[in-house]
Design goal:
alpha/beta, Chitobiase, domain 2, TIM Barrel, Alpha-d-glucuronidase, C-terminal Domain, 19 helices, 16 strands, 37% helix, globular, binds 4-O-methyl-beta-D-glucopyranuronic acid
Length: 671
């Protein structure tokens, strides 16, 4: 039957080759696991279901191997080579041993073993050790009480608040399985533009019901906080307060009690995520307090409970002459060293807002005393929603692999995040989820790969993007080698193609106002200057681009001298970042030998043409793919092709009004 994408990468159809099945089967005679730990039981049952499907034969779960050989042994021990959630896969005699220092480590090992089988890797003489590099690997859902998802493009929320806590949708469990298979161990279930309702007893009970489903998969639940909740949430015998001032003892008491209420229902509650004094959300600054005052108040309210406060750095002010690029840096670096040890500051990968390409946020490396978490966006807010194919792993890696130089060469963003550069105790990576109620979870079939890649990179940021893509294709779409290669190549080129037909050469923030879809570089009438797109590209008769050097906003000065050097000279700035930092004359000759105007046109035209290439590549894959998945992607590619031309024509015509130059041969102006 056709594949509707529901099973994601957890497809356990029988391996087509009988010899291969028989080979694996020799090591899968049984699964031995002792004890009743729920996470260990999950590991055993996932392995059992997976292997039975893949090998086409029953695999019994037994209490102890007791001298039997030819099976899989799951075991929790104390292995100095492993951290708390790491795992080891090892051949021991005729058995395969999956061991870890915790039950969740065993669960991750079980999924790793399944991945070996799904991708056709050998399990003979197995010796794999893997430790997660980051402790909190989480999804952030921007899901609202009414079932909508802010910037969600795959249907409505997975959480049916109106049915919870009584009815448990079976999909919650499948969601947990998918995450656990990647090593994701936390989920923030509600939008950072948070409703105070999540602090009511009614909603805490609903969230507790979700936590009960996720717990056996090693996943902890977190909540986004409406900072002034103390002013709106009433409870029996607990009236709302007049204030949300974090230094007011009554407010502090209110939160301490709220925390206890939450932990009474959710004993392994993960903690709070906070967006405050950002885009109109209230926060501690409303009381003349700092972000640190606000975050520390919540951290102290957590008391001895094992939870954290994740405070977002996404802030900016609507001022005409302030460069939004600098805002988070300016508000947060003075607070370094002032945060409670339970606080983590969560920073978007770039300084503006999940644009198609951004230089890394200058906060990375600039707060050595404050654990900084990475916030990536999986949902394609600025990357064509669920209609454009953009594989995001190369974009995530581009940021993680960049050298901040703060402690000499090799001080990559990844080392800031994994704690190795500054010795952070807490480490975290978050992905803003792209999931929804669509049958295939992510709307675009290929969007599943972004969820997958995020989870794999949160576990180990050194994994290569193409390797992750290949794995995902094999597990999700096809095992046919030629098709695996072609689709992997297509995915690897997809982001750069998208950049070219939307925002080439470092252009940014020129998309449709409000909706964030399609082109609108002409917007100069938004209510706030920092929302006007003309503010970001600054096109005029001389040239285009935002001067962020010393003669401009000087945002470049927020980086180390070595980084500044890479980006300060328009002659030597790598082309992908050029217009992020420089206002470049239209007739300036670039390293390609073409003028800026000609290069811009070349990018827009070849970018749009490349979507045709993507369509052709995809069409050739038809025999290797499930018809439903093939059609889904083919249809979306057709939309993408049309819209790439929309972007190209809109931008070339718009910028052409300033450049007043002809479109270079062989391209033609749109009719
Ligand atoms: O990217 C912008 C989005 C907002 C979002 C905000 C944020 C949740 O357009 O929808 O709000 O960022 O990250 O807080």
């Amino acid at each position: 039957c056709a594949d509707d994408g529901y099973r994601l990468w957890l497809k356990y159809d029988p391996l087509p080759d009988a010899t291969q099945r028989a080979n694996y089967a020799r090591s899968a005679g049984f699964i031995a696991v002792s004890g009743n730990d729920p996470v260990l039981r999950t590991a055993a049952s996932e392995l059992q279901a997976g292997l039975q499907g893949l090998l086409g034969k029953p695999v019994p779960v037994i209490g102890s191997a007791a001298g039997r050989t030819g099976g899989i042994v799951l075991q929790v021990g104390s292995d100095p080579a492993l951290n708390r959630e790491g795992y080891r896969l090892a051949s021991r005699g005729n058995n395969l041993v999956v061991s870890a220092n915790s039950a969740s480590g065993v669960l991750y090992g079980a999924f790793a073993l399944l991945r070996q089988v799904q991708t056709g890797a050998s399990v003979a003489n197995l010796s794999v050790t893997s430790n997660p590099k980051v402790k909190l690997r989480m999804l952030n859902h921007w899901d609202n009480v009414n079932g909508t998802i802010e910037r969600g493009y795959a249907g409505s929320s997975l959480w049916k608040w109106y049915e919870l806590p009584e009815r448990i949708d079976p999909r919650y469990r499948d969601y947990a399985r998918a995450n656990a298979s990647l090593g994701i161990n936390g989920t923030v279930v509600n939008n950072v533009n948070a409703s105070p309702r999540f602090m009511t007893d009614e909603y805490i009970k609903k969230v507790a019901a979700l936590a009960d489903v996720f717990r056996p998969y090693g996943i902890r639940v977190y909540l986004s906080v409406y900072f002034p909740a103390s002013k709106v949430v009433n409870g029996p015998g607990k009236p709302a307060l007049k204030s949300a001032d974090p230094l007011d003892p009554a407010v502090r008491q209110w939160w301490a009690e709220k925390v206890n209420e939450i932990y009474a229902q959710i004993p392994d509650f993960g903690g709070f995520l906070v967006k405050a004094n950002s885009e109109g959300e209230p926060g501690p600054q409303d009381y003349g307090r700092t972000h640190a005052d606000g975050a520390n108040m919540l951290a102290e309210a957590l008391g001895t409970h094992d939870g954290v406060v994740i405070w977002r750095s996404f802030v900016y002010k609507p001022a005409e002459n302030a460069d939004r690029f600098r805002a988070a840096y300016e508000e947060f670096t003075p607070l370094d060293g002032k945060f409670h040890p339970k606080v983590i500051v969560q920073v978007k990968n770039g300084p503006i807002d999940f644009q198609v390409r951004e230089p890394f946020s200058p906060l990375f490396g600039a707060m050595p005393k404050t654990p900084l978490a990475m916030e990536f966006q999986l949902t394609q807010e600025y990357l064509g929603f669920a209609t454009h194919m953009v594989y995001e792993a190369p974009m995530f890696k581009e940021c993680l692999d960049t050298d901040t130089h703060v402690k000499g060469p090799g001080s990559t963003v990844a080392k800031v995040i994994d704690g190795s550069l500054h010795g952070y105790e807490q480490t975290a990576m978050a992905g803003v989820a792209n999931t929804g109620s669509d049958r295939n979870w992510t709307g675009h079939t290929m969007g599943q790969a972004n969820w997958y890649a995020f989870g794999r990179l949160a576990w180990d940021h050194t994994l290569p993007s193409d390797g992750i893509a290949r794995e995902w294709v094999q597990m999700t779409l096809t095992r046919q080698p030629k098709a695996v290669q072609t689709i992997t190549d297509l995915m690897m080129r997809s982001r750069e193609i998208y950049v070219n037909y939307t925002n080439p050469l470092g252009l940014h923030h020129i998309m449709g106002y409000g909706i964030h879809y399609g082109p609108e570089p002409w917007l100069d009438k938004a209510p706030r200057p920092d929302w006007r797109h003309t503010y970001y590209h600054r096109a005029d008769s001389v040239g285009v681009g935002f001067n962020r050097t010393a003669t401009g906003s000087n945002a470049l000065s927020l980086y180390t001298p070595q980084v500044q050097q890479q980006w300060e000279n328009p002659q030597t700035t790598p082309l992908p970042y050029l217009l992020w930092f420089h206002h470049v004359p239209w007739n300036q000759t670039l390293s390609t030998g073409r003028s800026l105007w000609d290069e811009l046109c070349v990018r827009y035209y070849t970018g749009a043409d490349s979507v045709r290439w993507m369509q052709q590549q995809w069409a050739q894959m038809k025999p290797a793919l499930d018809p439903e998945q093939f059609d889904d992607v083919a249809g979306r590619l057709a939309v993408q092709q049309k819209e790439a031309i929309w972007w190209r024509d809109a931008c070339v015509l718009y910028f052409g009004r300033f450049a007043r130059r002809p479109i270079p041969a062989p391209f033609k102006a749109p009719d």
